[in-house]
Structure formats: C-alpha cells, structure tokens
Design brief:
about 0% strand
C-alpha cells in the first residue's frame, strides 16, 4: 500500500483485501476474483466510510460473507 492511500498509517481490511487481490496497476489478475472486487469497489464508491465499520459489516463481509471460525477473508477468496 502506498502512503498516499493511508497518510495516518491505518489500513482497513477492505483496503488490504483489494490491495492483495489486484496488480499494482489496479487490474484484477483473476477472472474469478473480478466480480467480487467490482462489488466491493461499488460499495466503497457508494459509502466511502463503509470500510471503517466493524468486520461483520464491512464491504468484504457484505460481499464474501461474515468470517467464520478460524477464517479471515482478507487472505483468500
């Protein structure tokens, strides 16, 4: 993540998820992942502060589902 995206040093799970699953130019390397990332980006464009909510209601949880026991969505789809 570049410092310009997070000048305060805090990074949300949504920002991390998008950064992990995209190339440096912002494109999606996988056709399977593209719909998920497009929906997350759409939700962020509607409400930029949605990513700062708790982990059960952030864009990753809305699109991928709430984290289960021992599983964290930011690491895999």
């Amino acid at each position: 993540m570049q410092k310009k995206e997070s000048p305060t040093g805090t990074v949300t799970r949504t920002q991390l998820f998008v950064a992990i699953h995209t190339k440096t130019d912002g494109t999606c390397p996988s056709l399977e992942t593209r719909p998920t990332l497009d929906e997350i980006r759409r939700l962020i464009s509607i409400d930029p502060y949605l990513g700062e909510t708790d982990l059960d209601h952030d864009p990753v949880a809305i699109v991928c589902g709430v984290d289960g026991r021992g599983r964290y969505w930011q690491w895999s789809l």
